[in-house]
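CHAIN AND CONFORMATION:
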Amino acid sequence: MGAEVLGAYFVYTGSRFIPFPVSSAVEDYKNMIINSSINDILYTDTFHAGVLNPLAV
Protein backbone atom coordinates (compact mmCIF):
# COMPACT_ATOMS: atom_id res chain seq x y z
CA MET A 1 0.00 0.00 0.00
CA GLY A 2 1.27 3.47 -0.82
CA ALA A 3 0.80 4.69 2.74
CA GLU A 4 3.14 2.00 4.03
CA VAL A 5 5.81 3.12 1.57
CA LEU A 6 5.48 6.59 3.06
CA GLY A 7 6.03 5.21 6.56
CA ALA A 8 2.48 4.78 7.86
CA TYR A 9 1.86 1.89 10.25
CA PHE A 10 -1.94 2.02 10.02
CA VAL A 11 -4.28 3.63 7.55
CA TYR A 12 -8.00 4.19 8.06
CA THR A 13 -9.43 4.37 4.55
CA GLY A 14 -13.12 3.92 5.22
CA SER A 15 -15.69 1.85 3.41
CA ARG A 16 -15.45 3.47 -0.03
CA PHE A 17 -12.79 0.95 -1.11
CA ILE A 18 -14.59 -2.20 0.08
CA PRO A 19 -16.71 -2.75 -3.09
CA PHE A 20 -13.70 -2.53 -5.44
CA PRO A 21 -13.05 -5.74 -7.44
CA VAL A 22 -9.62 -6.18 -5.81
CA SER A 23 -11.12 -6.09 -2.30
CA SER A 24 -11.12 -9.36 -0.37
CA ALA A 25 -14.60 -8.65 1.02
CA VAL A 26 -17.29 -11.19 0.19
CA GLU A 27 -19.64 -10.32 -2.68
CA ASP A 28 -22.75 -10.06 -0.47
CA TYR A 29 -21.02 -7.44 1.69
CA LYS A 30 -19.85 -5.50 -1.38
CA ASN A 31 -23.40 -5.54 -2.78
CA MET A 32 -24.85 -4.38 0.55
CA ILE A 33 -22.57 -1.33 0.47
CA ILE A 34 -23.33 -0.56 -3.17
CA ASN A 35 -27.10 -0.85 -2.64
CA SER A 36 -27.22 1.12 0.62
CA SER A 37 -28.47 4.68 0.94
CA ILE A 38 -28.26 7.58 3.38
CA ASN A 39 -31.25 6.11 5.23
CA ASP A 40 -29.16 3.06 6.18
CA ILE A 41 -26.68 5.10 8.22
CA LEU A 42 -26.98 4.76 12.00
CA TYR A 43 -25.26 7.50 13.99
CA THR A 44 -23.85 6.59 17.38
CA ASP A 45 -21.32 8.24 19.64
CA THR A 46 -20.43 4.88 21.19
CA PHE A 47 -17.36 4.55 18.96
CA HIS A 48 -14.94 7.31 18.14
CA ALA A 49 -12.52 7.16 15.20
CA GLY A 50 -10.13 9.41 17.11
CA VAL A 51 -8.80 6.40 18.98
CA LEU A 52 -7.30 5.26 15.68
CA ASN A 53 -5.29 8.46 15.44
CA PRO A 54 -2.48 8.60 18.02
CA LEU A 55 -2.27 12.37 17.52
CA ALA A 56 -5.90 12.76 18.65
CA VAL A 57 -5.25 11.18 22.07
User: Anything to note?
Assistant: Residues 4 and 10 are 8 Å apart (CA to CA).
